[in-house]
Amino acid sequence: MGLLQSENTRMNGEMSTATKRKREDEAHRPDLNTKRKKLLETRRQLPIWSRQKDIRAAVREHDVLVLSGETGSGKSTQVPQFLLDMFKNGKIAVTQPRRVAAISLARRVADEMGTPCGSSSPASKVGYSVRFDQSTSPSTRIKFLTEGMLLQEMLRDPQMSQYSCVIVDEVHERSVNVDLLLGFLKQLLAERRQSKNPLKLIVMSATADIEMISNFFSKAHPISRGHTSADTDADEVSSEASWQGFSDDEADGAVSPDNKVSICHVEGRQYPVKTTYLAQPTEDVIDTALQRIFKIHCGEPMPGDILVFMTGQETIQSLQKLLEELAENLTRDYPKLLVLPLFAALSQPAQQRIFEPAPPNTRKVILSTNIAETSVTVPGVRFVVDTGKAKIKKFRNQIGLDSLLVKPISQSSADQRRGRAGRETAGQCHRLYTEDGFQAFEKDNTPEILRCDLSEALLKMKARGVDDVLNFPFLTPPPREAMEKALMQLLQLGALEEDGKISKIGQQVARLPLTPSLGRVIVEAATLECLAEVIDIVACLSVESVFLNVDTEEAKEKAQEARQRLFRRQGDHLTLLAAVQAYASESSDRRRWADDHLISHRAMKGAMDVRKQLRAQCKMANLFPDDSGPESDNEPPSEAKSDDILKAFVRGFMNNVARLCPDGSYKTFIGNQTVAIHPSSVLFGRKVEAIMYNEFVYTSKAYARGVSAIQLRWLEEVLGS
DNA sequence: GAGCACTGC
Hints:
Rossmann fold; alpha/beta; Four Helix Bundle (Hemerythrin (Met), subunit A); DNA-binding; globular
């Protein structure tokens, strides 16, 4: 009752809108039903439709179902609906790696079920929850969430008691979050099996790795006998070849007949794609791509757009220039060519252009980074040209440096790229490498957990009560040294006690949507009484670059002039603070202000969202001094306060300090590595006693990003605290 | 004097 009450109170503020929405929904109810019926026809055509009984039986009889299904099988939308009536007392959670996917799947499933979506009506059965946007109702039965969101929920409610079933989708992408989730869920399954409220888990992944995933779930936990399956209807289990209870398959007899994991494969629906390779490896992939694009354009009938996978902004823009020059010279016998770049840093309207239909008699060529491999679906593509390379980030824990280098992609990544040509009709994939080259690729992408700084993952585990992180059930255990390095880092931050248990500070940090270093900065700022200011800066650091890149000399001068008022000699941190304060106090036209200052409006809006969230969380954690609200006054900080702000950052980034050497270079305080100030920094080209930086990235050389000038004596001061 | 692929809380 109390809970219900507060739920109502919370909704009160929006009552008028909510009531209005409800009336609208009721008026549209016949519409919802018509839509549902119409969609039912489409659903029946999906490959997965005929497998409903199998899937239900498997979930009834086993704790875990590992389901592989290629693109177009319909698994993400249908499986939750197939299972819904089996879980009368709890919700079904469905995780997705990306926000847009979670939201659009929720909308689609709501339409298919003939129910309103999310918070639009209290009767809505399908909702979603992503950062900054939670849309559920008291009647929500199926909830789509991002992986990170479910992890946060798990920290607050370790038993996940509101869910009877968790579906983890797109596991083959192997984000750190999905690896953590699966480890936690494996432990939770064992706990909940003993309870009145057992948990079912469905893991959905690409075909290649279902065996390793089912091994993961069946191995370390001993088989439980006689678990609840009162309503089992054995007749429903079909014996199709692609369907296996694990016992049929396991030759070594390690798993008993009533094991708890089953696997199931569902065919996808893709059009055939003809694949070609080079006979000889190419020296100049841009030139080869250029020639191949023209060969396709001049040789293949219309319609059919071309999607080219490349490594980054720079190569994309140079190929775009070459293509446009050559396209000028095309005779009237050929269709026109429209070249469209696609990468994440591109403005939203520029990205939208790929969805607009091309003018008559024009073929689109989309030059894209990896963004088109998973995040963005480009319509109308019949031809894929694949350079076989991508920029891949890897953390080197010995020196605490991220490298971001061009590397060959994996075979599964190459196949994913190829699949982009067969979504609407039969297509072609032109691989700009040899078949031997393809065979030499790694089979799968290296899981992120083997490539990243582990401190955040380990802190989350500690916060969930996993004391022995070295023996955590990892799908792919990271090297011991990497984990030890991360534990050392957490200890140094004061997030762990000497005995390895999580500290009070660690608990506070783990709840924040930040890396442990940035979280520690927040906690330090609270004691130095500069929290509001530090939140503003941290908010900027956790979004894409606030200051826009400018290409031309002319634009650069203009930007320099417009931003002059914002620049602070101490460095990037106080400059970001000045930018946020100026933006926040701009009451009339913020977009125009951003444009005038060559500041990304999108990034600034993102920073304001993060700021709001961090302020709320810090208030909840009582990090603000008594009665002082999180509202900063937008006053420029005094000299002393500026120093405190930077000291707070030094507390979280003690290993990221470098001093100026007589030869004019900067060398890290720990490890004596050479580091250059990144050209995007306001300190670029300046010489100061010492610098502190948030990121240490190796691209063409080792760069420091997010840089401020500090005094070396602060280090001792901060360490004393 | 030279520039970061992509997600997520």
